[in-house]
Amino acid sequence: MFRMIALMIMAVFAASAAVAAPSVQQRTFGEWHGDAQPGYQNAHTINSAGSEFGFTCTGSSSCTFYVDLRRDCVKGRIYPALISTPAGGTTIEAFCLKLGDRSMFAFDHPQLYDILGESEFAFGLPIEDSQFNISKFSLSGAKDAVAWVKDQAGRDAGSAHGGH
Amino acid sequence: MPGQRMADISNADAPRAPQLKASHMRTRMFRLIAIMMLAFAGASPASAQEQGEQWRVQSETGHAFASTINSAGEELGLNCQEKCQYMVVFSIGCQEGGIIPVIANGSRADAVMVDLTCHVAEGSSFFYLDDLDMTKLMAGDAIAFAWPSGEQLISVSRFSLKGAKEATASVFALWKKAAPPVAPGQAH
Lengths: 164, 188
Known about the structure:
The complex is a heterodimer. By secondary structure, chain A is an alpha+beta fold. Chain A has two helices and ten strands. Chain A has a single domain, classed as Immunoglobulin-like. The longest helix of chain A has 21 residues. Chain B has one domain: Immunoglobulin-like (Sandwich), CATH 2.60.40. The longest helix of chain B is centred in the last third of the chain and has 15 residues.
């Protein structure tokens, strides 16, 4: 189920990112940048290594967290990963998506929303030769950015329903 | 679950599992276990010691173990007494029953997720690796474990497996040699 939602969201994400609509709204929340347009809402942060951690919705309640680690992955494959903040961490399953040249890992966890007020977030991905790729991201502004994306997604869904 | 901190995620299915302490500890669990077991058996110090490439083997009547210590002072080993169990000591203290989510990654095996339960003996903490297929994970040159580590976010504990194959084979052989006769239908 999550895989289908992630695929659907990311398909819209790719299409929307490629062609910015004139009605796009943009906001900055601390280290996070948000933009929203009909059918697509996104907030993300980029770390010093150029990796991206974000949250995106498709204009409805279908939303997902994702990371772009600038690493290749096998499309459709599930990868084990470790996510952590100073308050603690957990293991998750991340779903590999390909968007053009980009490889992204989509993931979700019911308590992810609760840790957005922490200072930092780390994503640990096991890679070849028993090594791990550890990427760290600032959560400064993340809570407000994600709330804004969800709000924009809700408004978008409302206006879509209202149009029928 | 609003308000619940992420640290609780790994404990969702565990009955009030204690949180891991942030304090770091350098332990030599396998040496400690050996001392404890020998004390219980009333035996003299280890009767046999062998040096693998980076793995050390020790044995006593009915008991054998092998381990390696990495540069951080962490330890990975195989302990055989009543049964054989792989164990690991991370540079973190924990409370008995506490659960830590871990990813294990071998150089010739797919990475796996596992929740490890903390055990404490003589003030030192360690984790059994019973839920992992260690035969697969230890098939390469190294094995690594990633785990949440508070302010450092994620720590990786890496161990060399050079000499591990010979060392663990030696432990199994020593243990089986000294173990009591096995009842029909049972295997070591």
